[in-house]
Amino acid sequence: MSTSPEVSAGTYQRARRPEQKLERRDAILGAARELALRDGVRTVSLADIAARVGIHKSALLRYFETREQIFLELTAQAWREWVTALHAELDPAAPGTGELGTGEPGRAESGVGGSGTGGSGTGAAALVADVFARSFGDRPLLCDLIAHTPLNLERNVSPEAVRRYKLTSLGAVGEAAAIVRHALPGLTPAECTEFVAAMASLAGALWQIANPGPALAALYASDPDLAGACVDLAPRLRRTAEILLAGLAPSRS
Amino acid sequence: MSTSPEVSAGTYQRARRPEQKLERRDAILGAARELALRDGVRTVSLADIAARVGIHKSALLRYFETREQIFLELTAQAWREWVTALHAELDPAAPGTGELGTGEPGRAESGVGGSGTGGSGTGAAALVADVFARSFGDRPLLCDLIAHTPLNLERNVSPEAVRRYKLTSLGAVGEAAAIVRHALPGLTPAECTEFVAAMASLAGALWQIANPGPALAALYASDPDLAGACVDLAPRLRRTAEILLAGLAPSRS
Question: A158-170: per-residue pLDDT in tens?
């Protein structure tokens, strides 16, 4: 099957048994992940992924509809892994249980709450801001994928594939909102969802600015008039999270 | 020169005089603008633009380096038009003068300020939030372009083109921040810049979510589990602006 010049002929046979097919599917996702981390999501083509796995493009299309479906599946995986990490950092007692939404809020030392003032970023709000900033700052692939999802990935897959993806991403956002509410019980569920959604959108947009191409990076390095346009991702996200958490309760109508 | 099947031969001659060249350049930008507004920035190719103008692709490349340079030039134009509109709405006395940064803050009835509380979204903060939300909500092309800029447009043009663009966009953000400070003198210049930058990034990201492709739009319409994932752009931006403005002063460290 191998026609790619990068692959020694005969390394791969056509996968016939179910477990072989799952293995092949994982290999495709793994190759796409590696290439996207190295070169950025935008530059990775279906042909690149097929060459990396060592199969022909037509063989790859037996597993995924399009390049975009591969990346949408990686995005779904990245959301699940992200929300598991949030559980571990903000709610160590219930990692990955997903039961927070119905449980009792557990941290009363909130820096944001019914009192209507946000404080100066200390306490639970500062912890939430820091954990969220790092949760995106430490996950370059998730951030890159978030920006590509509504622009490209969701626009070039079947309705069923986008539906599966949406249920996963909405589930992760809902679970993350429940984790925030557990830490900051003075916020409403809708406010926690607003916070998570805004942070995720900003993480996607700001990651692209924080990781310019070679020409723009050289320009930033050489031109003091432009250096201010670059962004340091985690500190910027931390500050924005602090502002949002401090503003949610006081701006209630 | 016309080889496109969509153009009657002889409609266009090669532009030789400077004013003809400027006209041709404007026609290219106008065609790109119309197509992007109709179909979305991501789908418009260099060949589409050339066909719309009625010139061959090779003729178009005498005016612009790449498809991305055309859209980067449209983005620069859109930023300038946007900041002129902000002046008109928030500082009618000095539309487009760009002198606000050094002038005296003029509105003392601020809802956000040194007192450290944001109020409930009334007064000057509510006005700023509303004007910013509409400034993006009424400009679909600007929003679409903002998302594409760091992802694509800035990565496929010459260093000189990206430098010119950056100076324009940074100028617009700086001018907008000065307008915000004029309306809300209790905020620092850095806080006003933070507000403008966050709003612009969110406008780009949320516009993409608010304007899904046909398959996803149909899914939103048919599936109540997913309807919540869609976004109504201007109301969402207004609410986020209120939260940010209410949180900036209280979250100062």
Answer: 989 999 999 999 9
